From TrEMBL, chains A, C:
<comment type="pathway">
    <text>Cofactor biosynthesis; iron-sulfur cluster biosynthesis.</text>
</comment>
<dbReference type="InterPro" id="IPR000192">
    <property type="entry name" value="Aminotrans_V_dom"/>
</dbReference>
<dbReference type="InterPro" id="IPR015422">
    <property type="entry name" value="PyrdxlP-dep_Trfase_small"/>
</dbReference>
<dbReference type="GO" id="GO:0044571">
    <property type="term" value="P:[2Fe-2S] cluster assembly"/>
</dbReference>
<comment type="subunit">
    <text>Homodimer. Forms a heterotetramer with IscU, interacts with other sulfur acceptors.</text>
</comment>
<feature type="modified residue" description="N6-(pyridoxal phosphate)lysine">
    <location>
        <position position="203"/>
    </location>
</feature>
<dbReference type="GO" id="GO:0046872">
    <property type="term" value="F:metal ion binding"/>
</dbReference>
<feature type="binding site">
    <location>
        <position position="238"/>
    </location>
    <ligand>
        <name>pyridoxal 5'-phosphate</name>
    </ligand>
</feature>
<dbReference type="GO" id="GO:0030170">
    <property type="term" value="F:pyridoxal phosphate binding"/>
</dbReference>
TrEMBL record, chain B:
<dbReference type="GO" id="GO:0005506">
    <property type="term" value="F:iron ion binding"/>
</dbReference>
<feature type="domain" description="NIF system FeS cluster assembly NifU N-terminal">
    <location>
        <begin position="1"/>
        <end position="122"/>
    </location>
</feature>
<dbReference type="GO" id="GO:0051536">
    <property type="term" value="F:iron-sulfur cluster binding"/>
</dbReference>
<dbReference type="GO" id="GO:0016226">
    <property type="term" value="P:iron-sulfur cluster assembly"/>
</dbReference>
<dbReference type="InterPro" id="IPR017787">
    <property type="entry name" value="NIF_FeS_clus_asmbl_NifU-like"/>
</dbReference>
<dbReference type="Pfam" id="PF01592">
    <property type="entry name" value="NifU_N"/>
</dbReference>
<dbReference type="InterPro" id="IPR002871">
    <property type="entry name" value="NIF_FeS_clus_asmbl_NifU_N"/>
</dbReference>
<protein>
    <submittedName>
        <fullName>Fe-S cluster assembly scaffold protein NifU</fullName>
    </submittedName>
</protein>
């Protein structure tokens, strides 16, 4: 069955037709090298400048502070590795959280091998970092705080402005992985004291394979990809002009529609969450109920396992994703769900559904009906559920 | 990349050529990019620049600034010609891209070199003119050199 | 004036319509995350597998030896940096040449700061490395030889098979930057003993922002971009599915048309080179006349400067590129032209023209007429030419 209801927009989104249309001329007409002198290359260069402006505007940055990358992962790698190199004279200590994306966590592990000391902050049961813990973790060797703007699995939005303030007070750089937040919540790098910020186009109906790292002017930064003089000599490689153009259009669009779109999403989200919690027994909402991305819904259904649930939903035309990592090359349950205190077997039975702009109430009603049925069927299959029911019966007797 | 004025002076450079028995000739090179400019001046007994010609081996900006500089000094007195700085030339061309600022320095230096040659040939001293370097290493407009 | 004759195909190419058409469904229909479990993601995954096969075939590799990157620069950075890390137990010595692309040279400079010792081999006046020099440079600490397959400026094709043999005999890894060679000359990684190979799609009528690094099975390799489990856990980041699909089609196409296309290009190339050398005085061909990329033509016109020539050609609708680096953020003349022994002022007067599949003999005839006229005009402007003519006159008297 063809996917009819796509509820995995936190993984990636459909590239909107408007974005594709904007990209097309840069494949077959204005395909010149943007670093070249001739007229066809100049048109590419102008297109890049425009996209840079469109993006800078969304976060209140200057255009020359936006550096294009191949996506969020590269931006995260760059921010951490280059800061570690550029500030080794100051110290080797980096503070992050236990619930970051792997692009941050695995980079941190890599840096540990290179001599970095990393503090991984705990989060509370809603996924929020504790500002006092953060304060306490800062020491004279601290060169960087890297805390995600919003979590990709449970949707929790961190207190970024407060973190920025703390970083500023202590003279420590602040990087935020805003891959999930960009275009979903208002961001102002000055107001929030953000020094570096990562983002990825394909999360906001832009193309895959393009992202950016915002680097505040004055931050010492080293290159991550060495070579040609592109991106103010900071990131080598022939510019992905169609990708950059598409990103610009997607960013502009996301900013313009943000208020209305997220208002609608929040309503749908809360409607759905409420119904699921009411109508599916032994179910828990993961993540903060309020400080939450407008499009994120994450549930744990006790006694069942996520992959089975996902496949069955898929057979009904519904695409979601799971905290269960069987799909992503590792069999460990999600580090995020474990960090907010879920036991292994409950973390395994999680489902993330993330809204996109086309999703309607009817879609969600249909999804709920399917979930109810599938969860019921899987519980019938589950020895855990059997034990649970037996135990309950016994305790009643 | 270039303004319309730059493109105009590049495509139709004014005062290209040599002056036979010129009053002063100046040739300068820019060590930074290897470009070379030569200016010929024809100066009359009232120290008025009656004619000015140039030859340039260089980029589009170098050609355009030479052309504009010759236009600006033509008909001027020596003292007035000294006021034709690279900034004045750039302004007259509606600006140059930052990496091309050094090209306009070539024009200024070439005029100074030609005036110096004139002064030496005639055994006079020109107020405010110092011996031009034949190689220009300007320190300004240098991009901050950082590690990558 | 609109560009009518695009002769800068070594910089980047037009994405062919067939490639764009193949990419389109992956923007707006099969946009699912290729790492996900559901059906729409599976279609992305299958598309990636197919592209990987199409590419692997071109160089005689196994599909699982192809790792997608954001382009040639990232592939070059990855090959060098990761090898340096993975083999630090064996040694710190890398051998390369003076005429590599900046993606190699600047990465080498970076590695020197990290403790690497780099030998930069000289080349002869045609741009060829000396195999004896290479032999002599190898020492017990040598971990890698990185020599480009073909040079991007002067088109010289290096003796890759011989280099591969030497590397193998000495048990040293061999990486080649084949960004210019892939799809232009036959490549067989086994026959040529290549352990790693970089390539970039936009050089062969594929999209910008996608490349690959071939890594022979058995080579110890570290990640360059850390994070998610994509690319066999070696290169993190949501897969650029449209880019990968486009690359696959472009690679297949390049391989299928190679024989016929390059035969035609070689004829046009040699026709044009001969006419230029005969009809424009004081002109030199740069690069090897025979061991040369089929689409590359590179000339030095004495007494004139490259940028002026480029701009004037552009005004006539002809796009080329210059050895003069005024255009690329640095003012130094091309390191390649200096390495083959050109004096500064002659290196400055260079013009690279690189053929694409649509170029006709008539295009080249028109281009030649324009070059003759423009070179003449610029020489009239040139103080160097003036001096030269005067000297000749004097020597005659
Ligand atoms: C020989 C060579 N290596 C590497 C590159 C870098 O490729 P990209 O610009 O796609 O990163 C290029 C082209 O720019 C090249 O010609
Ligand atoms: C929070 C977060 N950071 C980083 C990334 C990596 O972005 P990309 O896959 O575009 O490299 C993602 C998405 O995959 C994400 O959700
Ligand atoms: S039983 Fe299949 S992944 Fe655990
Ligand atoms: S005069 Fe050298 S770049 Fe312009």
């Amino acid at each position: 069955m063809k996917t009819r209801i796509y509820l995995d927009n936190a993984a990636t989104t459909k590239t909107s037709q408007e974005v594709v249309d904007a990209m097309l001329p840069y494949f077959t007409e204005d395909y010149g090298n943007a670093s070249s002198i001739y007229e066809i290359g100049q048109r590419s260069r102008e297109a890049i400048t425009k996209a840079r402006e469109q993006i800078a505007q969304v976060i209140g940055a200057k255009t020359e502070e936006i550096y294009f990358t191949a996506g969020g992962s590269e931006a995260d790698n760059w921010a951490l590795k280059a800061t570690f190199e550029a500030y080794e004279g100051k110290g080797n200590h980096i503070i992050t959280t236990k619930i970051e994306h792997h692009a941050i966590l695995h980079t941190c592990e890599y840096l540990e091998k290179k001599g970095a000391r990393i503090t991984y902050l705990d989060v509370d049961e809603n996924g929020l970092v504790d500002l006092e813990e953060l304060q306490k973790a800062i020491c004279p060797e601290t060169i960087l705080i890297s805390i995600m703007f919003a979590n990709n699995e449970i949707g929790t939005i961190e207190p970024i402005k407060e973190i920025g303030m703390i970083a500023k007070e202590h003279g420590v750089l602040f990087h935020t992985d805003a891959v999930q937040a960009f275009g979903q919540v208002p961001i102002d790098v000055d107001d929030m004291n953000i020094d570096m910020l990562s983002s990825s186009a394909h999360k906001i109906n832009g193309p895959k394979g393009i992202g950016f790292l915002y680097i505040r002017k004055g931050v010492k930064i080293r290159s991550f990809v060495h070579g040609g003089a592109q991106e103010r000599k900071r990131r080598a490689g022939t510019e992905n002009v169609p990708g950059i153009v598409g990103y610009g259009v997607a960013a502009k669009r996301a900013a313009e529609t943000m208020e209305e779109r997220t208002k609608k999403e929040r309503e749908l989200r809360d409607y759905f969450i409420q119904r699921v919690l009411e109508e599916v027994p032994y179910t828990k909402l993961n993540g903060d109920p309020v400080k939450r991305l407008p499009n994120n819904m994450n549930f744990s259904f006790r006694f069942i396992e996520g992959e089975s649930l996902l496949i069955m939903l898929d057979m009904k035309g519904i695409a979601g994703s799971s905290g269960s990592a069987c799909t992503s090359g590792s069999l460990d349950p999600s580090h995020v769900l474990l960090s907010i205190g879920l036991p292994h077997e409950i973390a395994h039975g999680s489902l993330r559904l993330t809204l996109g702009e086309d999703i309607t109430k009817e879609d969600l009603d249909y999804t709920l009906e399917q979930i109810k049925e599938i969860v019921g069927r899987l519980r019938e299959l589950s020895p855990l559920y059997e034990d649970f029911v037996r135990k309950q019966k016994n305790s009643k007797n | 990349m270039y303004s319309e004025k730059v493109m105009d002076h590049f495509q139709n450079p004014r005062n290209v050529g040599e002056i036979e028995n010129a009053s002063g000739v100046g040739t300068v090179g820019n060590a930074k990019c290897g470009d070379i400019m030569r200016i010929y001046l024809d100066i009359d007994e009232n120290q008025i620049i009656k004619d000015c010609k140039f030859k340039t081996f260089g980029c589009g900006a170098a050609v355009a600034t030479s052309s504009m500089a010759t236009e600006l000094v033509k008909g001027k007195t020596i003292q007035e010609a000294l006021q034709v700085t690279n900034k004045a030339v750039m302004e007259a061309l509606d600006g140059l891209p930052p990496v091309k600022v050094h090209c306009s320095l070539l024009a200024e230096e070439a005029i100074h070199a030609a005036l110096w040659d004139y002064a030496e040939k005639h055994g006079i001293k020109i107020e405010g003119l110092t011996k031009p370097k034949s190689d220009i290493h300007e320190g300004e407009e240098e991009e901050e050199e950082e590690e990558y």
